[in-house]
Design goal:
Layout (H helix, E strand, L loop, with lengths): L12 E2 L4 E10 L2 E3 L14 E2 L19 E4 L14 E13 L3 E13 L2 H4 L2 H14 L4 E3 L2 H7 L17 H22 L4 H5 L3 H25 L9
Helix pairs in contact: 4-6
Length: 238
Amino acid sequence: MTLPVDPAADPPALVTGELRGYRRFRLAEDGLRPPVHVAAGPWSWPVEQARCAVDDGHAPPARGCGCGLYGWYHPSCTGLGTGWGDVTAVVAARGRIVLGDTGFRAAAARVQAVTLPRRARLSPRRRRRCERVLAERYPGVLVYRSRRRMLRRHPPEDLSSLGITVRPSTAPRYRWTALAVWLAGVLTLCSVAVVPRPVLVGITPAGWLVALAGFVLWQAALVWLVVRASPLPGQAPR
């Protein structure tokens, strides 16, 4: 997310009504916990109020500070993996909001809808326990077993009136490309095992150097694709 950091810049915007966003949480026994600032505890119900962990002398979100409740405009920007949380949620932000290119920081927000963790979808007992925790901690929040169904019913908003163009993240494309490059490299390495030994012995030093250069390029391409497919932890919703 690209956010202005100049303290002398324009103050945070006051958005009329609520602004829809998407983010990840880690579902615990006491509620939905942010995947980054775990010590902040679970989100409150019905509305979570932002608190600055660095300086309590200003009201979040503030220019020049990273405080505030984070959300992304498009669900494809929320990231994947347990490091980003195990559930996706639709949130409605309100009050003072710092608008960025792909997401925002808000003074307050509430959870509108949430998906069940993948681990709960395969076990009826876990699913019932997760549904019970969400029903007790966040009454009225819509709980979906399918992320796709939740996003169909809660699509991204048109923010053109705020001068923002909501675009899907390019990270999924890089993830699939990284997977294809990895599979191609693994298959190439495995094919060496079926090459007759006389052929391997007959390879010249220059040929081995070319093979080594290809291996290094394969690794470098994988690293580049993984970096492009994964936003920095510091940019994760808080």
